[in-house]
Amino acid sequence: MLGRLNHVALAVPELTAAVAAYRDTLGAEVTEPQALPEHGVTVVFVNVGNTKIELLEPLGEGSPIAAFLAKNPSGGMHHLCYEVDDILAARDKLKAAGARVLGDGNPKIGAHGKPVLFLHPKDFFGTLIELEQS
């Protein structure tokens, strides 16, 4: 069911500083910031060749990243994103196996313009999992 690792997401308290560290200090190629109000984040992607690093900054008062940063003020790994061929089939198979899909269970459009779902971290050893249709 799982395809390639699409990205590793890092929650950061200050996107500008994180972009500078990756671009200027590490010499990485980064995208322009993209606001995703429906997800409560502003994102930047760092291209690392075989995958990407997603830098997440809270956007708005209801941002789930704000709660994460309240517990982890310096930031940290937020989630792993895996590609799947058919997100609805993957969702149904996971739910039948007892995995919890966050939200209302319906995919939302993610930063790459493709449907995404999130799986409860308690079902995957403390790691929030994002599935993105490839």
Concise account of the structure shown:
This protein is α+β, with helices and mostly antiparallel strands and 134 residues long.
The CATH topology annotation reads as 2,3-Dihydroxybiphenyl 1,2-Dioxygenase, domain 1
**Per the principal axes of the C-alpha atoms, what is the gross shape?**
globular
CATH homologous superfamily annotation: 2,3-Dihydroxybiphenyl 1,2-Dioxygenase, domain 1
Question: What's the number of structural domains?
Answer: 1
- Distance between the first and last residues' Cα: 12 Å
CATH top level is Alpha Beta
String of helices and strands: EHEEEEHEHEEE
What summary fits the major beta sheet?
A: 9 strands, mixed
| Overall helicity | 10-25%
Number of helices: 3
Mean pLDDT: 96
Task: Walk me through what this model shows.
The mean pLDDT is 96. Strands 1, 2, 3, 4, 5, 6, 7, 8 and 9 form a nine-stranded mixed beta sheet that branches. The protein is built from three helices and nine strands, in the order βαββββαβαβββ. The chain has a single domain, classed as Roll (2,3-Dihydroxybiphenyl 1,2-Dioxygenase, domain 1), CATH 3.10.180. β4 and β5 form a beta hairpin. With 134 residues, the chain is α+β, with helices and mostly antiparallel strands. Helices cover 22% and strands 38% of the residues.
